Amino acid sequence: MPSDSEASVEHHLAASAERADYLVELSNVVRDTSLGRHGPRSLRRLGLVLRALMELTRDPDVSVYLVADTSLLGGHREFGNQAEVRRLRGWVADGLVEEVDDADERVLELARMTASPVVTGDRYVDHRVEHPWIQGNTWQFLKPTARPDGSVALVAMDMGVRSAAEISRRMELSALKKQGLLGPSRTPLTEVIMRTWRCPEPRCTLYDIRKGDRILLPRMRRGVPTCELHGTPLEDEGPRLGTTQLKAVIDGACVARYTLGEGSEAHVGRLPGQVGIALHSLLSPQIARQVSRMHVAVSARSGTVLIRDISTYGTRMRRAGRHGAFGPWEKLPPQTDRPFRPGDEVELAPGVVLTRSGRRFPAELADAWRTEAARVPVPPSAAAPTRRA
Ligand SMILES: [Zn+2]
């Protein structure tokens, strides 16, 4: 179990929502007094959540993007430990916490743009008119829940369907369509994440993907992407090239990651060469014998990720279904590209699995949104846990 020493928390903090595996509504976590007796506000609860995420993902490098209300630091006297307040201020200054007037609204905006899961205890009932996609969501919101031993588990919340908001949902879908037709004055979120943006202020680099580690996703104000700092509408800088991450998982633990960019190809195997993931030092001798030097090729083309078996002994794959279930293992046809989606598992040898992180390419996000928009709303009477199987 990794320690929760001072340094280890920072290790998990991402400076960009797009690069994080999870979004965390920090104010909600810090104030959740059901998570340990640490007073009204405590950063120790974030440490507990990070442990829970490492446990859930079995990834010691799992990363989070923190969003907090300005009132979290505004009420600094409620922190029992003032060293935590200084530490939190440092994170804000370093761009590791996005501090906003309304964290709920920002978290939901980011969750929708990135499709990343959110750690929060909030059910966002009052936001469902603006965010009807929350309706019936069973996978994207994880509630930190204390276990009897003081540790924390993350439990996926069934957000349920609120009947009053169902009408609003249809309203928004039609409004979105209209926005798409209205042109540049209103930009649908699908467009926002597929483009790069630039603030007209000459020295502002908050959205510049070529500079710095911190890239904000635009704040949407009345349908217009605007600069968080200057409040000015952002200028469209052209299409955004996506990246995704491959994860090598051995005996259930993530042991290596590789970032794959649009238009590139990587090999995974025992000793695949310079581009990709080399597994030789991570495998026992008997398993290593079953893994080819170059076992699979993964490529990113036109916003989708493809996998190709190039091994001697073959590769199996199983597809991610709804609600975290998997389809059956199937052998990959040799030398043939197949779609490789977030959640799918590719098995090179027993216990040697390749996955993608939850991060999706912009084109995949747009596809997911189209599917979501086409989905027939479910009446509350049918809101049983097995619906839409
Ligand atoms: Zn700016």
Automatic annotation (TrEMBL):
InterPro entries: FHA_dom, SMAD_FHA_dom_sf. Residues 266-317 form the FHA domain. Keywords: Phosphoprotein. It comes from the Bacteria. Residues 324-343 are annotated as: Disordered. The keyword Endoplasmic reticulum does not apply. This is FHA domain-containing protein. The lineage of its organism: Bacteria, Bacillati, Actinomycetota, Actinomycetes, Kitasatosporales.
